Amino acid sequence: MVKLTPRPYLRQLAKAIGNQKLKSLPYLFPYTKELAIADATRFSEIYARKVRTKSLPSESSDIEEALFFHAVAKRTDHLFDTASFLRDSIEHRLKITPHMYLMMLQGIEQSKNRGLTSTAVSLYIELHNERFSMTSEDRNLAASLLLDIFKGCKNITDLLQLKIAYENHMTNSVTDKSLEIRYIATFIEAYLNSGQYTRAVELFESGFADLTSAQFSTNQVLKHLPIKQMLLAMSQHGDVETLTRWLEVVVETDRSLLDYDTWSEFLSLGLSQNHYGLVKLIYSRLVMLELEDVSLDEVMFSNKLEELENKSGVLSSLSEKTLTEILHTLASNGDVNSTLSLIEWHYVHKKLKGEKALTKDLCLDIILSYCYHKDDTPSSENLSIQNVLTTINNFTSKLDAEFVLSYRDICDAMSYRFVRYNVIDSNVKTADIRARASFNKAQEFEENDESKPRKIQNNNVYNSRQGNILKNSEILDDFVRSIVNYILEERFTIKTLRIFINCVLHHIMKYQNATGMIVALSAMHQIHPKMASEWLDNESFDIIIRTISKSPAAKLVGFEMYRYMKSKSLDITTSHYKDFIASASKGPDNELLQLYLHELSVSEFTTQNSQNSPDQTVPTAYNEEEKVERKRYYDIDKRDSG
Which sign, positive or negative, has the C-alpha torsion 542, 547, 549, 550? Predict the structure, then answer.
């Protein structure tokens, strides 16, 4: 085909697309992709030479062929030379047809030269002003080409010319109503290209609402609006709420509007911001899409898991790290069902491959999901805390050999749960009544209806309605008694009890003071007088001493704790001495300070001699790995205690 001259090429092109009769040239552009640029350029030069020598035949077909090959070759210079030749020649001017305008527009569109937008608008308006006899197909094509030319436009002022053409000609001449959507899409793209994100979102949302309420389906509108470009802009601007809302529309309409890489980018954004709505949407409507109708029994007793892995581009491409991050986001936002569902699949997947399945991290995610779970109807029995403790006990009783669960792993999540202890604080209730009365009384004296801002309550801890409810000593006492009794009645393990006690003590250390600690310990002592020796562990004493060091009025409490630890021959570490010194340094008296400094120096001297002894027979209390872990825990306590 490349050896042919222009006209035989057009005949073969028409034959190749199944038409015995040559189709109108403006409509052959989609079929010219196989025509090499070199061949198109060669054909274009043939006609350009005829224009320069003024030997171009005056027949309309010859002129249209010239414009056709100039457009395919993206030679806008030849296009305009030919157009000037037609205008200068009276004989050729009489042969001008609508198809020539269409091919001029196609040439400008093919060139991607954004500097020719004004010329394109002039050609479009001139085409309609000349009052040619055009088919509806020709009018639709002209409008479509003009909108394509404005794709990628960055100058809003250029769009004013498009607006004039649209209002004066396009609205009255086209029959393809989807061009109205494309017209709005052109302005949205221009706003995005020029960095006007807010205006782009406003036009996108208002345009979508107007179009769908008129005559278009949601699928039609999303197909022609720059949905992918718009959503990517939302992602880049961190507008996660708006992005999530529109992704729900896309999922309901047609998931294929976005490719896998785009979905992955949105998932990464949701994970980086721990945004539950976005992550849950992609997880439930895309990641787990292939598993909707598959039960665990089918996977366990068939080869379906392997088939799903081979078929699903989403599941097979997710890394272990990504799955873990998804799991953490679901868990930290209290989605128990999704957390358990994902772990179930993860567990079966690993188990079938012979790998270790239920790790410590997975167990922690399950516990976190129960801690952060939002009760629709809070129970007076505080089932949420009981569910957390039941879950903890399951792990401490059955998986103790696999890993060690520490209160430090879940203390922040437990604090979140504690401040949602379902009880009525009489002080808060009284404050609410007074606030409402004050508000109503103030409204009576207001002459207008304008509401003035007033502080009604202080949501100071994790946005809990009552703040830190455990600061009320009566409530704290009742809380500790009821939960400890529940643990004892259910015969939970001693490790579960210690984790709960340490979480409560840590919460008091972080958000309260030594008074709260004394209330909690007294409540436990009344339940079990030997609680100090049987329930508390080294971590408990670490927290208690750290709490004492923070309190300005706990000097004597610290001394009593020191005497108790000495009498029971408990290990007093350097960190403990530092905390005792901190508690004794408050106030004018310094006898205790001198005592602690003396004991610390003796302790360090003894430790140094023991380490330097060549015949050391006492083994080290911790190996190197345990020392690193203990230091990490100490740093956490130091951070939380301020």
Answer: positive
